[in-house]
UniProtKB/TrEMBL annotation:
GO MF term list: DNA binding
SUPFAM superfamilies linked: DNA breaking-rejoining enzymes (SSF56349)
Organism: Devosia soli
GO BP: DNA integration; DNA recombination
Domain Core-binding (CB) span(s) in chain numbering: 8-89
Domain Tyr recombinase: 106-285
Gene3D superfamilies, A to Z: 1.10.150.130, Intergrase catalytic core
Name of the protein described by the UniProt record: Integrase
Keyword terms: DNA integration, DNA recombination, DNA-binding
Family: Belongs to the 'phage' integrase family.
Record PANTHER family: PHAGE INTEGRASE-RELATED (PTHR30349), PROPHAGE INTEGRASE INTD-RELATED (PTHR30349:SF64)
Protein backbone atom coordinates (compact mmCIF):
# COMPACT_ATOMS: atom_id res chain seq x y z
CA UNK A 1 0.00 0.00 0.00
CA UNK A 2 2.15 2.84 -1.29
CA UNK A 3 -0.52 5.53 -1.63
CA UNK A 4 0.03 6.86 1.89
CA UNK A 5 3.08 8.85 0.84
CA UNK A 6 2.59 9.37 -2.93
CA UNK A 7 5.58 9.98 -5.21
CA UNK A 8 8.04 9.04 -2.44
CA UNK A 9 10.27 5.97 -2.85
CA UNK A 10 9.36 3.38 -0.24
CA UNK A 11 12.15 1.37 1.40
CA UNK A 12 11.59 -2.35 2.01
CA UNK A 13 11.42 -1.75 5.77
CA UNK A 14 8.81 0.99 5.43
CA UNK A 15 6.83 -1.18 3.02
CA UNK A 16 6.88 -4.02 5.56
CA UNK A 17 5.54 -1.63 8.21
CA UNK A 18 2.80 -0.48 5.83
CA UNK A 19 1.91 -4.08 4.99
CA UNK A 20 1.72 -4.97 8.70
CA UNK A 21 -0.65 -2.07 9.34
CA UNK A 22 -2.75 -2.77 6.26
CA UNK A 23 -3.12 -6.41 7.28
CA UNK A 24 -4.62 -5.20 10.58
CA UNK A 25 -6.95 -2.73 8.83
CA UNK A 26 -5.37 0.38 10.34
CA UNK A 27 -6.93 3.56 9.00
CA UNK A 28 -5.00 5.72 6.53
CA UNK A 29 -4.63 8.41 9.22
CA UNK A 30 -3.16 5.93 11.71
CA UNK A 31 -0.76 4.61 9.09
CA UNK A 32 0.44 8.12 8.27
CA UNK A 33 0.96 8.87 11.96
CA UNK A 34 2.88 5.64 12.60
CA UNK A 35 5.14 6.19 9.59
CA UNK A 36 5.80 9.76 10.77
CA UNK A 37 6.64 8.65 14.32
CA UNK A 38 8.92 5.82 13.24
CA UNK A 39 10.60 8.36 10.96
CA UNK A 40 11.08 10.63 13.97
CA UNK A 41 12.95 7.82 15.73
CA UNK A 42 15.03 7.11 12.61
CA UNK A 43 16.00 10.80 12.35
CA UNK A 44 17.17 10.68 15.96
CA UNK A 45 19.26 7.55 15.26
CA UNK A 46 20.59 8.85 11.94
CA UNK A 47 20.52 5.28 10.69
CA UNK A 48 17.96 2.60 9.92
CA UNK A 49 15.65 1.95 12.90
CA UNK A 50 16.06 -1.81 12.50
CA UNK A 51 19.58 -1.39 13.95
CA UNK A 52 18.31 0.16 17.20
CA UNK A 53 19.43 -1.06 20.61
CA UNK A 54 17.72 -0.84 23.98
CA UNK A 55 20.04 2.05 24.87
CA UNK A 56 19.01 3.87 21.68
CA UNK A 57 15.36 3.58 22.75
CA UNK A 58 16.15 4.93 26.23
CA UNK A 59 18.18 7.84 24.88
CA UNK A 60 15.43 8.69 22.39
CA UNK A 61 12.80 8.97 25.09
CA UNK A 62 15.14 11.03 27.27
CA UNK A 63 15.78 13.39 24.36
CA UNK A 64 12.05 13.72 23.70
CA UNK A 65 11.40 14.59 27.33
CA UNK A 66 14.24 17.12 27.52
CA UNK A 67 13.04 18.75 24.31
CA UNK A 68 9.68 19.43 25.98
CA UNK A 69 7.62 17.21 23.69
CA UNK A 70 4.05 17.17 25.09
CA UNK A 71 3.10 14.02 26.98
CA UNK A 72 0.23 13.04 24.62
CA UNK A 73 2.61 13.32 21.67
CA UNK A 74 5.22 11.21 23.44
CA UNK A 75 2.65 8.51 24.18
CA UNK A 76 1.51 8.52 20.56
CA UNK A 77 5.11 7.95 19.46
CA UNK A 78 5.41 5.11 21.98
CA UNK A 79 2.34 3.40 20.47
CA UNK A 80 3.81 3.66 16.97
CA UNK A 81 7.23 2.36 18.00
CA UNK A 82 5.78 -0.49 20.05
CA UNK A 83 3.90 -1.68 17.00
CA UNK A 84 6.96 -1.27 14.79
CA UNK A 85 9.29 -3.11 17.16
CA UNK A 86 6.89 -5.90 18.13
CA UNK A 87 5.37 -6.62 14.72
CA UNK A 88 7.58 -5.32 11.91
CA UNK A 89 10.96 -6.05 13.52
CA UNK A 90 9.86 -8.89 15.82
CA UNK A 91 11.87 -7.22 18.61
CA UNK A 92 9.56 -7.32 21.67
CA UNK A 93 12.62 -6.60 23.84
CA UNK A 94 12.76 -3.09 22.34
CA UNK A 95 9.01 -2.60 22.68
CA UNK A 96 9.21 -3.39 26.40
CA UNK A 97 11.76 -0.59 26.92
CA UNK A 98 9.32 2.08 25.78
CA UNK A 99 7.68 3.95 28.64
CA UNK A 100 4.26 5.56 28.49
CA UNK A 101 4.00 8.72 30.58
CA UNK A 102 0.95 9.25 32.76
CA UNK A 103 -0.60 12.67 32.79
CA UNK A 104 -3.76 14.12 34.32
CA UNK A 105 -6.70 14.35 31.93
CA UNK A 106 -8.42 17.69 31.79
CA UNK A 107 -12.12 17.64 32.48
CA UNK A 108 -14.11 18.15 29.28
CA UNK A 109 -15.80 21.47 28.67
CA UNK A 110 -19.57 21.00 28.84
CA UNK A 111 -22.26 23.49 27.88
CA UNK A 112 -25.53 23.86 29.70
CA UNK A 113 -28.70 22.97 27.80
CA UNK A 114 -29.51 26.65 27.43
CA UNK A 115 -26.05 27.33 25.99
CA UNK A 116 -26.44 24.49 23.49
CA UNK A 117 -29.79 25.89 22.36
CA UNK A 118 -28.30 29.37 21.98
CA UNK A 119 -25.33 28.03 20.02
CA UNK A 120 -27.49 26.01 17.61
CA UNK A 121 -29.80 28.97 17.05
CA UNK A 122 -26.81 31.23 16.38
CA UNK A 123 -25.70 29.28 13.28
CA UNK A 124 -26.02 31.17 10.01
CA UNK A 125 -27.35 28.42 7.72
CA UNK A 126 -29.64 25.39 7.87
CA UNK A 127 -26.76 23.11 6.86
CA UNK A 128 -24.58 24.29 9.72
CA UNK A 129 -27.43 24.07 12.21
CA UNK A 130 -28.19 20.52 11.06
CA UNK A 131 -24.53 19.45 11.24
CA UNK A 132 -24.04 20.78 14.77
CA UNK A 133 -27.39 19.32 15.83
CA UNK A 134 -26.15 15.89 14.70
CA UNK A 135 -22.98 16.37 16.78
CA UNK A 136 -25.06 17.18 19.88
CA UNK A 137 -28.21 15.14 19.23
CA UNK A 138 -26.39 11.92 18.35
CA UNK A 139 -23.06 12.47 20.13
CA UNK A 140 -20.96 12.10 16.98
CA UNK A 141 -17.32 13.06 16.59
CA UNK A 142 -16.64 15.93 14.20
CA UNK A 143 -15.03 13.57 11.68
CA UNK A 144 -18.05 11.29 11.86
CA UNK A 145 -20.41 14.19 11.18
CA UNK A 146 -18.35 15.30 8.18
CA UNK A 147 -18.30 11.81 6.63
CA UNK A 148 -22.03 11.10 6.89
CA UNK A 149 -23.89 10.31 3.71
CA UNK A 150 -27.59 10.80 3.06
CA UNK A 151 -28.17 7.04 3.05
CA UNK A 152 -26.70 6.80 6.59
CA UNK A 153 -29.91 8.30 7.98
CA UNK A 154 -32.24 5.38 8.71
CA UNK A 155 -35.62 6.94 9.46
CA UNK A 156 -37.36 3.56 9.71
CA UNK A 157 -35.19 2.29 12.56
CA UNK A 158 -34.45 5.82 13.84
CA UNK A 159 -30.71 5.21 13.63
CA UNK A 160 -27.71 6.98 12.15
CA UNK A 161 -25.23 4.58 10.58
CA UNK A 162 -21.67 5.63 11.46
CA UNK A 163 -19.45 3.85 8.95
CA UNK A 164 -16.21 5.71 9.54
CA UNK A 165 -15.91 5.92 13.28
CA UNK A 166 -12.72 6.03 15.30
CA UNK A 167 -10.48 3.09 14.50
CA UNK A 168 -12.59 2.27 11.47
CA UNK A 169 -15.34 0.84 13.68
CA UNK A 170 -18.97 0.78 12.60
CA UNK A 171 -21.82 1.58 14.95
CA UNK A 172 -25.38 2.85 15.11
CA UNK A 173 -26.05 6.23 16.72
CA UNK A 174 -29.41 7.45 17.93
CA UNK A 175 -31.70 9.51 15.69
CA UNK A 176 -34.22 11.53 17.65
CA UNK A 177 -37.56 12.67 16.14
CA UNK A 178 -36.60 16.35 16.38
CA UNK A 179 -33.25 15.71 14.70
CA UNK A 180 -34.97 13.76 11.93
CA UNK A 181 -37.35 16.68 11.37
CA UNK A 182 -34.40 19.08 11.07
CA UNK A 183 -32.52 16.75 8.72
CA UNK A 184 -35.59 16.45 6.52
CA UNK A 185 -35.78 20.24 6.33
CA UNK A 186 -32.12 20.30 5.32
CA UNK A 187 -32.72 17.54 2.74
CA UNK A 188 -35.53 19.47 1.05
CA UNK A 189 -33.55 22.72 1.11
CA UNK A 190 -30.28 21.13 -0.07
CA UNK A 191 -32.00 19.03 -2.72
CA UNK A 192 -33.75 22.12 -4.06
CA UNK A 193 -30.37 23.89 -4.25
CA UNK A 194 -28.89 20.90 -6.11
CA UNK A 195 -26.21 20.18 -3.49
CA UNK A 196 -27.82 17.12 -1.85
CA UNK A 197 -28.24 13.79 -3.61
CA UNK A 198 -29.42 10.42 -2.33
CA UNK A 199 -26.02 8.83 -2.82
CA UNK A 200 -24.04 11.92 -1.80
CA UNK A 201 -22.66 13.52 1.34
CA UNK A 202 -25.14 14.67 3.97
CA UNK A 203 -23.09 17.81 4.54
CA UNK A 204 -21.21 18.59 1.32
CA UNK A 205 -18.37 21.06 1.28
CA UNK A 206 -17.78 23.88 -1.16
CA UNK A 207 -18.03 21.30 -3.92
CA UNK A 208 -20.86 18.76 -3.68
CA UNK A 209 -18.53 15.85 -4.49
CA UNK A 210 -16.52 16.45 -1.31
CA UNK A 211 -17.71 16.47 2.32
CA UNK A 212 -17.51 19.48 4.57
CA UNK A 213 -14.12 19.67 6.28
CA UNK A 214 -13.66 19.22 10.01
CA UNK A 215 -11.83 22.55 10.03
CA UNK A 216 -14.90 24.26 8.59
CA UNK A 217 -17.13 22.66 11.23
CA UNK A 218 -14.75 23.88 13.92
CA UNK A 219 -15.01 27.43 12.56
CA UNK A 220 -18.81 27.14 12.50
CA UNK A 221 -18.89 26.19 16.18
CA UNK A 222 -16.49 28.95 17.22
CA UNK A 223 -18.44 31.62 15.29
CA UNK A 224 -21.79 30.39 16.62
CA UNK A 225 -20.48 30.34 20.19
CA UNK A 226 -19.22 33.90 19.78
CA UNK A 227 -22.60 35.02 18.43
CA UNK A 228 -24.33 33.24 21.32
CA UNK A 229 -22.05 35.08 23.80
CA UNK A 230 -20.50 31.88 25.11
CA UNK A 231 -17.13 32.91 26.50
CA UNK A 232 -15.61 29.49 27.10
CA UNK A 233 -13.39 27.88 24.48
CA UNK A 234 -15.54 25.40 22.58
CA UNK A 235 -15.32 23.22 19.49
CA UNK A 236 -17.36 20.48 17.82
CA UNK A 237 -16.23 17.96 20.45
CA UNK A 238 -17.82 20.16 23.12
CA UNK A 239 -21.22 19.22 21.69
CA UNK A 240 -20.36 15.52 21.96
CA UNK A 241 -19.21 16.06 25.56
CA UNK A 242 -22.45 17.90 26.32
CA UNK A 243 -24.50 15.07 24.76
CA UNK A 244 -22.89 12.49 27.06
CA UNK A 245 -23.11 14.66 30.18
CA UNK A 246 -26.75 15.60 29.65
CA UNK A 247 -27.67 11.93 29.19
CA UNK A 248 -25.92 11.10 32.46
CA UNK A 249 -27.82 13.87 34.17
CA UNK A 250 -31.02 12.30 32.84
CA UNK A 251 -30.04 9.04 34.57
CA UNK A 252 -29.17 7.11 31.41
CA UNK A 253 -26.89 4.17 32.26
CA UNK A 254 -23.24 4.96 31.58
CA UNK A 255 -22.84 1.66 29.72
CA UNK A 256 -25.56 2.67 27.26
CA UNK A 257 -23.84 6.02 26.75
CA UNK A 258 -20.59 4.13 26.11
CA UNK A 259 -22.27 2.27 23.23
CA UNK A 260 -23.82 5.46 21.83
CA UNK A 261 -20.45 7.25 21.87
CA UNK A 262 -18.56 4.29 20.44
CA UNK A 263 -16.06 4.23 23.31
CA UNK A 264 -13.92 1.10 23.51
CA UNK A 265 -13.36 1.54 27.28
CA UNK A 266 -15.95 2.30 29.93
CA UNK A 267 -13.52 4.49 31.89
CA UNK A 268 -13.44 6.93 28.97
CA UNK A 269 -17.20 7.39 29.21
CA UNK A 270 -17.08 7.49 33.02
CA UNK A 271 -15.04 10.70 32.82
CA UNK A 272 -18.28 12.56 32.13
CA UNK A 273 -19.61 11.65 35.57
CA UNK A 274 -17.18 14.24 36.93
CA UNK A 275 -18.90 17.07 35.07
CA UNK A 276 -22.53 15.97 35.40
CA UNK A 277 -23.45 18.80 37.77
CA UNK A 278 -27.20 18.18 37.76
CA UNK A 279 -26.58 14.65 38.99
CA UNK A 280 -24.41 15.96 41.83
CA UNK A 281 -26.97 18.60 42.80
CA UNK A 282 -29.77 16.02 42.88
CA UNK A 283 -28.01 13.88 45.51
CA UNK A 284 -29.00 14.45 49.12
CA UNK A 285 -25.99 14.62 51.41
CA UNK A 286 -26.06 12.23 54.39
CA UNK A 287 -25.37 15.30 56.54
CA UNK A 288 -28.71 16.79 55.51
CA UNK A 289 -30.47 13.56 56.49
CA UNK A 290 -29.24 13.94 60.09
CA UNK A 291 -31.56 16.90 60.52
CA UNK A 292 -29.42 18.57 63.17
CA UNK A 293 -28.82 21.83 61.33
CA UNK A 294 -32.39 22.81 60.53
CA UNK A 295 -32.39 26.59 60.12
CA UNK A 296 -34.58 28.46 62.55
CA UNK A 297 -36.92 31.09 61.27
CA UNK A 298 -35.77 34.63 61.87
CA UNK A 299 -38.39 36.48 63.90
CA UNK A 300 -40.06 39.25 61.92
CA UNK A 301 -38.85 42.77 62.60
CA UNK A 302 -41.13 44.74 64.94
Amino acid sequence: MTTILPNVPVSPLRQKLIDDMTMRHFSAATQRNYIRDVGRFASFLRRSPDTATTEDVRQFQLAQSEAGVPVPTMNTVVSALRFFFANTLDRPDLARKLVRVSHPRNLPVVLSRDEVARLLNATTSLKHQAALSVAYGAGLRVGEVAMLKVRDIDSERMMIRVERGKGGRYRNAMLSPDLLTLLRQWWHDGHRQGVLHRDGWLFPGQYALKPISTRQLYRVVVEAAHAAEITRRVGPHTLRHSFATHLLEDSVDVRIIQVLLGHAKLETTALFTKVATRTVRAIISPLDKLGIFVPTETPPAP
